[in-house]
Amino acid sequence: MSLAVGIATSSKNMGFEEKKGDGKSVSESNENRPDSEIQVEIGGRVSRRMSEVSPYTTDDEDDEDTELEIQLGPLCTLKELSEKDKDDESLRRWKEQLLGSVDINSVGETLDPEVRILSLAIKTAGRNDIVLPIPADGNPKSPWFTLKEGSKYNLVFTFQVSNNIVSGLKYKNKVWKTGIKVDNTKEMIGTFSPQSEPYTHEMPEETTPSGIFARGSYTARTQFLDDDNKCYLELNYTFEIKKDWQST
Fold first, then answer.
1. Which segments within 49-179 are labelled E, that is strand?
2. For each of the chain's 248 residues, which pLDDT tens digit applies?
3. Which among 65, 107, 185, 232 could disulfide-bond with 173, CB atoms 3.0 to 4.6 Å apart, if both were Cys?
């Protein structure tokens, strides 16, 4: 949730025109040219640059930078995986490392893994953790939490994996302020085997923005997905950044 807003302006939009030596403005001299932004690159290749660039991306543009999809082959149950290539010593050691102390008989023969996000909390030095309740419908009460401007924090969550190995579990978070996207975070968490004890993951430290324009209400969408883009939890919520911490 690193909230940073980029702002782009141009001298043309601000009413300024660059003068050429003949007294004509650039905009006047380029009236009859098909594209005033044509550039010749090294090697004679011609490229065009958009004359105006939007400082903000859309959801569709974000989705275009999709991760490379890796075909991992057909899924198999943990029981089938444990039975494969028993004579291969290196594979046997790899499976032991991956599966750990998983009781194959208790897991069953389910192909699809199951991931449950058990808890979410925001950690800030010198303060009690902000424990975030996870509603069943994925829509927490607004605002879900409040942060102080300029404060450092970490998001910590626990989750449990059952049935099968979950591959490429990742965290995605998008944030908007007044309808403008200000953050798009993607964090790879890893690959995990089923176990009775929950896993704990702590996100890298971040700092909330500060200043009068940073304060206010934000809307956000958080997702936990795997390599197959199966979504285990989606949360749609609002939060606030204020000048000081909320009184408890």
1. 114-123, 130-132, 145-148, 152-162, 166-177
2. 543 333 333 333 333 344 444 544 444 444 444 444 444 444 444 333 433 433 334 454 455 444 545 444 446 665 566 556 566 666 666 656 666 556 555 555 667 889 999 999 999 999 999 999 999 899 999 999 999 999 999 999 999 998 888 989 999 999 999 999 999 999 999 999 888 899 999 999 999 999 999 999 999 999 999 999 999 999 999 999 999 998 76
3. 185
Residue 40: CB atoms within 10 Å: 9
First to last CA, the chain: 23
Q: How far apart are CA 220 and CA 238, in angstroms?
A: 6
pTM score, two decimals?
Answer: 0.64
Contact 113, 226 (CB under 8 A): yes
Provide the 8-state DSSP code for 82: H
Nearest residue to 153 (alpha-carbon basis) of 118, 178, 128: 128
Please, are residues 1 and 173 in contact by the beta-carbon 8 Å criterion? yes
Distance CA 162, CA 172 (A): 21
Pairing of strands 38-40, 46-48: antiparallel
> How far from 82 is each of 8, 46, 87, 102, 170, CA to CA, in Å?
56, 57, 11, 11, 26
CA-to-CA distance for 219 and 68, rounded, in angstroms? 29
In one letter, which amino acid is 15? G
Backbone dihedral angles phi then psi of residue 36, each to the nearest 5 degrees: -75, -5
Q: Going by C-beta distance under 8 Å and a sequence separation of 6 or more, which residues neighbour residue 207?
A: 2, 150, 151, 152, 153
Residues 6+ apart with CB under 8 A from 133: 140
